[in-house]
Amino acid sequence: MPRIHADERAALIRARIDGVRRTARDQVVRAEQQVQQAEAIATRLVDSELAAEAARQADLERGGLLALARDRRGSVDKALALLASPGELASYFRPRAEGGRVRLERVNADPKELGNGDTVLVPAGRSALKASLLGAAAREAAFPYDLTFEGAGMDRSLLVLDRSLDIDKSVVNLTFRDMTVDCNNNPFVQLRGGFTLFLERCRIVGFDRSAGGVEAIGGSEGVVYARDCRFELGFGPHTWNGDLWRVDDVLLARLEGCTIVGPMREVRPRGQGLVVCERVTFVDLEQRQREELGRHQAGIKLVSCRFESNDPPFGRDRPRRSLADISSAWAEDR
Hints:
Number of strands: 17
Order of helices and strands: HHHHEHEEHEEEEEEEEEEEEHEE
């Protein structure tokens, strides 16, 4: 049996020691990774609980509207009764905070200054809203509740968005009143944290961006009340294609005295949506959509509504409409 010299024996011992050290280091690294993973999981759980609690508190501010919307499957009659009662539904959108009257330029300069209950004044003529800055400010802090954008009239004030109003926080009582909103080839709003949205005497245009279509109102779950409004295709580059809304989880909505100028790809809500249309005029919807709505399909109820068609019908072959047709002061420069 060969003899191992002392230096060889020492090298073997050092190699074993190095192996033990590497194993120990690997174990320490794995342990640290496990601790980091556990901390990350715990942080996500805490953040989730905090977000859920914030959402519950926000819905308390709404009077529990979203809770009713989520429970629609168990309380369809209750939800329908609420949507069919404009006075009762309007009470959920009453102001809950008193704020100031803020000029639009100030919002564009520093949207972080907006507070609960503020009213943003949109003057007559053509104005721009830096919705991208407003969305960025909301990602850093809570979005103000009872925030109102108020114009001088549907045919007098034009508000042009630089992009969709994209908010991932809870939105309580966001109101637009007395203006035309040009979505500038984007969705009007993308409200991803639960929302209540009130539209009064507004015209929403410019959300017919692409062959795939873009929705006017998008988000996760929410309640919409639109009164005496117009949702019109024809002002975007693809004049025949758009959705009224694309709310993924739950939607409760009431359209009252509104006009919807199509052809819309989809008017009915998705999933658990429930919509009541009262005295709504549908213009240039496709025959398929007219038949579906006429059969009172699940998710939508029509009360004293009517269907009209332009001559020729508005659609794929009709040229893009100009905002200058509404007001010469609104000549498009995009």
